[in-house]
């Protein structure tokens, strides 16, 4: 048996033993290898039928009556409660709606206000996904704070008596590095500041433990590992202990204590609903709700175990299939520092990714020189990992 | 012929002569009377098939590739350009995305910043839909302005050298009163301030003329007369002359000049895209785009003419069918002051509306005592108006 045959044989055995493998049937996939679920998750089979029902019956036939009778009005909190167990939150702390960027604004401004007077500095992960930095800059400008970008590892030492809020990514979108959520959270809280975690690249890929680790606020998108569909609404977590004092910069009528009272004065709703803004986007929200159905009975520990096994195996296959010196992993080797993707630095990365996609291996390119491969444990298997590495080697050899 | 038969005979003749009447076939409707299109527009028949294609083919089969190849990325500007002619705007000034409330925040903060230093007052329509007032209060707080609620008719006299921005509704959501957009706009601009018009209750029901009247900024929802579906994304208009200096409080990565450059520093995009924030909500956006197809070849002058004829006829039928003293119209009688709805003050309005809905006449109730009937010229006819008034009379007589 050749080394390649040995890898393929191991992949087959790992796939056969994979308890999550049967979940792949719940998604629409083809005979390619889809390693871009960290950008846009695959379509869950339950979604098209549910969305057709929402459109044709709930909207088409029942129209306005569906706001109450079909539960449209309460969908933001109900969908939030479906996400809650995936990020280690008790019910009643997450609300779904608006984009990730808008939720970053709510969370960072809200955190600054919760921190109280005398604190006028916001720390932000310097390697963050750009939107977080741009929005944090706006939040700083509009709350009279200064913004200080820092490496996440330096945040515990930097948070001090002037720090109001800290915005940090759980997993770096580019490198796939997993940051120390428990440690950074504890340090920020010890400094009297509040931490906002961006879970875009971790929710649905690994355990998060928001409640367990005492996180203050968190936000995340739902179209990556949560498979909500293109641009599906994001979510906001405000820990129960902060809800009563949470002061949103976007107090739309949906966050009013009595929305249909139509009163001129604003009185904030209790609970997670305080994080709502305007009329929720029902088609996308209910598509997401249907998509979240695949998580019933899924163990996040099993997801994490498979994710690490997949990325370990992919890296091993890359070492075997790709000639030395052509790619370099910028994703940490240590499991404790790795999310659910592998990022490889590569010359001509954009061209290489185009060639991979043309051959059915879909990852993505991030400027200037990164090939990014996301491993979604619910529908990616070990044979996929071996094939992706093998095709990468073929492309690089030309 | 009885008076009732005479009204019904006139209704039949008006419907037979109605050039817009054939558009009703493009919507999913039943044998009831739907007078709540000013809250949630009926389902256009083109939407379910298009949305199924977006979900099953574009998302399901092409996944991430659809961002480019299916034109997802450019949908916010493309859909904005479909709305533009409906509100009298040249192309390139409207972008679709986010909720109405979020767009009010962008527009009001943006207007204050455009107004420049030394202006620290925001005027707001005192009878506005509540979310506009709540968000304007937040915008005032975050820009160091004071907020002054005023009757729209008093705005021209009140706008002065301290005024930065004015937020006013084109049509009042409760009374259906149409405010003087040309006159208020001219007065606000003459005072050196900027005006933001909320078009939620006018776009798609009557001509707006944003460019013609020199409006600075405008926002609106798309789920009322534009039939985009529950919670479909709203839009932002920034007049071309302001785009270069428009400074959004929500500068998400989608509004960056080079979004995929993933650079830490923010550089705003040119044009309407500067009003974008985060990843657009594609399912709802493309449902809206399909819904807007019904407007091809529709004359807004004809829409306005029919709208006024419908509300006139409904008021006449109400006078005939409803015993004296039970309802009072709070919608102005003068055409120049009327939008496309009729609001009737009525004792026990909530109970009366429930009874109407149970008998197939769907309007809505607005606290404390208003029955609200919206007339959507694309799919409501004169026989509908007569029947609604007749059933209202029957309900009130008990």
TrEMBL record, chains A, B:
GO molecular function term, any single one: kynureninase activity
Cofactor(s) needed: pyridoxal 5'-phosphate
Sorted UniProt keywords: Hydrolase, Pyridine nucleotide biosynthesis, Pyridoxal phosphate
Pfam families in the record: KYNU_C
Residues found modified as N6-(pyridoxal phosphate)lysine: 224
Pathway(s) served: Cofactor biosynthesis; NAD(+) biosynthesis; quinolinate from L-kynurenine: step 2/3; Amino-acid degradation; L-kynurenine degradation; L-alanine and anthranilate from L-kynurenine: step 1/1
Its biological purpose: Catalyzes the cleavage of L-kynurenine (L-Kyn) and L-3-hydroxykynurenine (L-3OHKyn) into anthranilic acid (AA) and 3-hydroxyanthranilic acid (3-OHAA), respectively.
Subunit structure of this chain's protein: Homodimer.
Protein's UniProt name: Kynureninase
Species of origin: Streptomyces monticola
Taxonomic lineage of the native organism: Bacteria, Bacillati, Actinomycetota, Actinomycetes, Kitasatosporales
Gene: kynU
